[in-house]
Design goal:
The protein has 3 helices and 23 strands. It is mainly beta. The strands form 3 sheets. A 16-stranded antiparallel β-barrel has the order 2-5-6-7-8-9-10-12-13-14-15-19-20-21-22-23. Strands 4-3-17 form a 3-stranded antiparallel sheet, with no helix packed on it. It has a two-stranded antiparallel sheet with strand order 16-18. The chain starts with a helix and ends with a strand. The N terminus is likely disordered.
């Protein structure tokens, strides 16, 4: 009984002293350090008292996470990460004259689609070993199918769309140094330009300039190739050299053009493709961990100014047969570019930033090579009477224009990131932009220009953003003049994209 009375008196003393503490802001450690030690008889326990630590000290909320990452060691230098990307399009398009949608004439279309749906699985699994996979699908709209939509009775299956984009392993030769990394597999590690190997989750505009993915779905798999490569950073120089084993044109899922006086990818012969890309980084170095992919904009988080140059060459990639000749001529594909890239903050206090690119591309696909392309084309066909060349050039319907050709291209883009929290804390900001692709091709009678203006609403950086984009492009008459296509007017396309990325 005496022990119980002693304990009770001790707790009354504690309560009294606790109430005399002058400031409730004092920590639990400060309070308990002023209390006398309590003596407890053997076998006795103290009655439950107030939990000062839990009740009096507010807990700091856990920081938001924007990645799915599993660490493999204590320091976090070994890890495995998973990302998901989805880009949904809602689009209005003025179709090229003569376009049809499921055999009905259509001067304009409204369509919905998935421009890209991807997942990445990658990680630094040891000090020197990096593993990378990417799986997903692209350009999935109502016409999606394999083989492609047709009216000839050939069955087409819309459920075949996703595929491995990348699957590769990489070895870092010098531990913890980026001097030399050797890798191989199915990869976008490439030559020519930064937009030949773009990080599509960080695009500054709504979409990349696809002409820079020079052999896309011709002799590659959506710009990826079976490749062995060496890449690295030495001082301010970033380099990559690659040897690729290109796919034959016969496996790209489309009927190849007939052999004739205009160059096309050869159906006979097989030669390796050689590629190189060099970047001199005057300010901050760009990240070098994920193989190949180059960031579109860092949204003011880095100071980047680069001069860049790249090339792709392949012997015997192209063939043609001159009119009246019985001999087949094989030509080398030679592509090269020089460019400058700027991405840096303007005001670190407000968060404003600028993004700019200017590049010159020399594109030699052989004599008179020309290919139309329309991104996620909303039209299924075009009447030969309206098609450029009277139907002799494939894929000219819908939103297609001469995207690839022998000649030269100047590409420029400019974007301005407005101040952070433009609409209030947590409500995001805006980034307006403009793009211009100006090309001179052998088979086009005049210089062609394709222009974009748009604006990004960045809800949470690249993790959640809306983009509204307007494109203006030329269209062409059916009749040729001196074997060249002739522009007769311009058409527009308005697209709203919603991107979610984690």
């Amino acid at each position: 009984m005496k022990t119980v009375l002693a304990v009770g008196l001790s707790w009354l003393t504690i309560a009294g002293r606790a109430q005399t503490v002058p400031s409730p802001a004092l920590s639990a450690t400060t309070v308990t350090d002023t209390l006398p030690a309590l003596r407890v008889a053997p076998g006795q326990t103290l009655p439950a008292g107030p939990n000062v630590t839990d009740d009096k000290i507010p807990k700091k909320p856990a920081a938001d996470k924007n990645e799915l990452r599993y660490t493999l060691n204590e320091s976090g230098s070994h890890f495995f990460r998973i990302t998901f990307l989805n880009q949904t399009w809602v689009r209005f398009n003025q179709n090229n004259p003569g376009s049809t949608v499921i055999q009905d004439p259509a001067t304009q279309t409204v369509d919905f689609g998935l421009r890209r749906t991807r997942m990445q699985l990658y990680g630094q699994i040891s000090d020197r070993v990096f593993l990378y996979f990417q799986y997903g699908m692209n350009n999935f709209n109502y016409l999606n199918g394999f083989p492609a939509f047709n009216t000839t009775g050939t069955p087409s299956n819309r459920k075949i769309a996703a595929f491995f984009h990348d699957a590769l392993g990489e070895y870092q030769v010098v531990k913890n140094k980026d001097y030399l990394k050797i890798g191989g597999g199915l990869t976008i590690v490439n030559g020519l330009s930064r937009f030949t190997q773009p990080s599509v989750a960080t695009i500054m505009s709504m979409d990349v300039p696809v002409f820079a993915q020079a052999t896309v779905d011709q002799t590659d798999e959506f710009a990826r190739k079976l490749t062995v490569y060496a890449r690295g950073q030495v001082g301010q120089l970033d380099y990559r050299f690659a040897i690729s084993d290109p796919f034959p044109i016969q496996t790209n899922g489309a009927a190849p053009p007939a052999l004739g006086p205009n160059a096309s990818f050869a159906l006979k012969g097989h030669h390796k493709q050689y590629q190189a890309f060099l970047t001199y980084q005057f300010l901050d170095k760009e990240p070098h961990q994920v193989p190949g992919y180059m960031t579109g904009t860092y949204l003011g988080k880095k100071r980047v100014f680069n001069l860049e140059a790249g090339l792709i060459t392949q012997k015997g990639a192209i063939w043609l047969k001159e009119t009246g000749s019985t001999d087949t001529t094989y030509q080398t594909m030679n592509l090269w570019s020089v460019a400058s890239f700027l991405d840096m903050p303007l005001n670190t206090t407000t968060g404003t930033a600028i993004n700019a690119y200017l590049g010159y591309f020399h594109t030699d696909y052989g004599t008179n090579y020309l290919r139309f392309n329309g991104i996620m084309n909303p039209a299924s066909a075009i009447a030969n009477s309206s098609a450029p060349g009277g139907g002799s050039i494939s894929g000219t319907q819908g939103n297609a224009f001469p995207m690839f050709g022998t000649g030269s291209v100047v590409y420029a883009q400019l974007g301005y990131l407005m101040k952070q929290d433009l609409f209030g804390a947590g409500n995001g900001t805006l980034m307006p932009y403009a793009q211009a692709q100006i090309a001179t091709y052998q088979r086009v009678s005049q210089t062609l220009g394709v222009y974009h203006v748009g604006i990004n609403y960045l809800l949470k950086g690249h993790n959640g953003k809306f983009t509204l984009d307007y494109q203006n492009r030329p269209y062409y008459q059916s009749a040729l003049e001196n074997t060249k296509i002739v522009p007769v007017g311009r058409l527009g396309q308005l697209t709203l994209q919603y991107q979610v990325f984690i």
